[in-house]
Amino acid sequence: MPARWPAASAAERDTIAGAFVAARMSRTAVAEYPGLPPTSEAEAYAIQRHAISLWPDRIAGWKVGLIQPPFSQQLGRTRLFGPIFAGGVQRAGHDPIDFPAIVGGFTAIEAEYVLTLGGEVPPAMGWTAERVAATIRAVHVGVEMAGSPFAGINDQGPLVTISDFGNHAGLLLGSELAGGMNALDAEVCSVAIDGVEIGRGTPANIPGSPMGSLAELLEHMGREGRTLPAGSLVSTGAVTGVHQIHPGQGAVADFGRHGRIHVRLVEANS
């Protein structure tokens, strides 16, 4: 990771968290990273934990994002994580959802498969894709709206992404798959922006499968000593890629027989 940056103090990390929370709450952009960027995974999640403590909402689940090489080799991780807050979860229907984006920040649409946990999962280690299957109650199609007041959230590596809620802004929850995890092998989805398809894929596009994403999340929660409550939502990763979208544009995530999720991006009012 960038060696030119010294490690931030605990007070500096709290200041970064506070700056991101204030920007999100006021819906104003952050022109530059508000302090010394984190140089370790521990620092990045420390900033995230403090920001979570400042956010006036409960956690409904967690987003899982892919860490690309060479960062995955440097960190020894292939996933990063961020909180999904209850107020940011919307049920998708036939009508388009107007989603507010911070002007001058970053917003993207991601077609995903969302897992619901059936029971409480206490912190533990040794999770595998096979072992996590017993924790899953339901599978839904969904859209993660990635978002940050900092336009460069993805440009400075995954530690910066982690520090601002993992670049998460909202979750649009679609229909449930009748066959649960067993139905995923046959699934195909696509994303179009302003009527032009820009991505198509299957759950196999997620390295290790959606269950692999859940396994890595539960390993992370084991390291953090955090219990996941029953009913927690887990957005398992972008199947068709991460597609930036701007106010005034519309997007459709098409899940075939499981329906479509329509989104219109609007300017967030401060």
Task: Return the structural class.
Answer: alpha+beta
Structural domain tally = 1
Strand residue content: 25-35%
Proportion of residues in helical segments: 10-25%
Count of discrete alpha- or pi-helical segments spanning 4 or more residues:
6
Low confidence ranges: none
The CATH H-level homologous superfamily? Fumarylacetoacetase-like, C-terminal domain
Q: Main sheet?
A: 8 strands, mixed
Radius of gyration, taken over Cα atoms and rounded to an integer in Å: 18 Å
In short:
This protein has 270 residues and is an alpha+beta fold. Helix content is 23%, strand content 32%. The chain has helices at 10-26, 41-54, 71-75, 129-132, 158-163, 209-224; strands spanning 59-66, 79-85, 89-91, 97-101, 106-117, 136-148, 168-176, 189-193, 196-201, 233-235, 243-244, 250-254, 260-267.
Structure commentary:
It is a single chain. The longest helix is centred in the first third of the chain and has 17 residues, at about 10-25. The protein has 6 helices and 13 strands. It is about 25% helix and about 30% strand. α1 (about 10-25) crosses α2. It is α+β, with helices and mostly antiparallel strands. It is globular. The chain has one domain (about 10-265): Fumarylacetoacetase-like, C-terminal domain (Fumarylacetoacetate hydrolase, domain 2, Alpha-Beta Complex).
Main attributes?
eight-stranded mixed β-sheet, about 270 residues, Fumarylacetoacetate hydrolase, domain 2, 6 helices, alpha+beta, five-stranded mixed β-sheet
